[in-house]
Design brief:
By secondary structure, this protein is of the alpha+beta class. The chain contains 16 helices and eight strands. Its main location: membrane.
Length: 436
Amino acid sequence: MKNLDMLNFSEQPTSSIYQYIFDLFTKLGLPDQQAHIVTAAGLLFAFAVLLYAFDYIMRKVFYSALNRIARRTSTKWDDFLLENKVHVRLSRTILVLLTLQLLPVIFLGFPVLTAALVKLLDIVVLLTIYHLVNSLLKTCRDIFRSSNAFKDKPIDSYLQVIQIFLIFVIGTLAVSLLTGNSPWSFLVSLGAASAILMLVFKDTILGFVASIQVSANDSVRVGDWIEMPKYGVDGDVLQINLNNVKIQNWDKTIVTIPTYTLLSDSFKNYRGMQETGGRRIKRALNIKMSSVRYLSEEEITALKKIRLLAPYIEKREREIADYNKTWNTDSSSPVNGRRMTNIGLFRAYVLAYAKHNPNIHQELTLLVRQLAPSEYGIPLELYMFTKGTQWAYFEDTMADIFDHLLAAIKHFHLQVFELPASDDLRLLGAQQASTA
């Protein structure tokens, strides 16, 4: 019984419910100390059942009703409230406040334990209120973002300032509750020691601010693929701590960088690509300039046998014939009027091939374009997105496309540029042999 005495039982409980149950157990012959314990355990069990029932009703009835109402309304603010989980934060705040009110009744016979639990619950109340206010602030941010008047305004910056202020206020109140001192005395003490604290905990403060900024901006999440060549970073984020960020590169090496470098240095985040569902192909075929020419009627007829290209050729033939007829073009020279070129038809074929490829995302940008000619030929660039973002899928899709195009290009009487080209070397050898 010595250990039980340390709990400092109250001799005169004042709650009628507690007193009634306590008297029942004492009439059954239990000593006062055991009666206190059994009474508290019974009330605690009943309270747990009450909280579970309240939470169950909120999740099954209240949340479902809110979701149905939000789907039926044409306004956006209720959707934003649900997206930011304001209803969840509100129900949790009510649960904590209910717990704070009933806990002293449950542990009425244990004043020391009750005082400790109430102090702990006061801090939990502060945290739940902070999360509730933060969700409301995010809802206001989303509502402002949906308005054309605030689209170009730095709303996130304003939200971050308010969040930092809220964290400072909540932290001050929490320290005041733990120490039992006035918040003003804590602020005065903090101001006097701020210079020393900033010097000693400089990296921690920078990391703390960076963590808040990264979280508020949602610039990096655990699981994101980021790239920072300056630090040798190219892989997935494993962990974001107060002082550092841990990244696993694709070669399975682990790189750790300070958290504040995510604010001080630029980096590339591939989350947008992964969420879009398409990964970009941006690669060019260099066409040998000397192989570009007009096509004869026989060559055009032969190319009409290509199923994907036939509709385009027929359309172009009509356009060219109408144009040349309108302007009375002299057909004795192919330069006069309009003619089909092998590179033009090849570009049209590549575009048609990409549009009929099931592995290419048709709703994202899809281009086949010529870049500026250079000493390496005429770059014919493919700019498109695959339907998946997985690395192996992306590489296989891109390789299949270029395998096909490299094999098909010779049917358009074009040559891929090589430095130097093998046929150029053979031609040079033949010329040297003929002049010898």
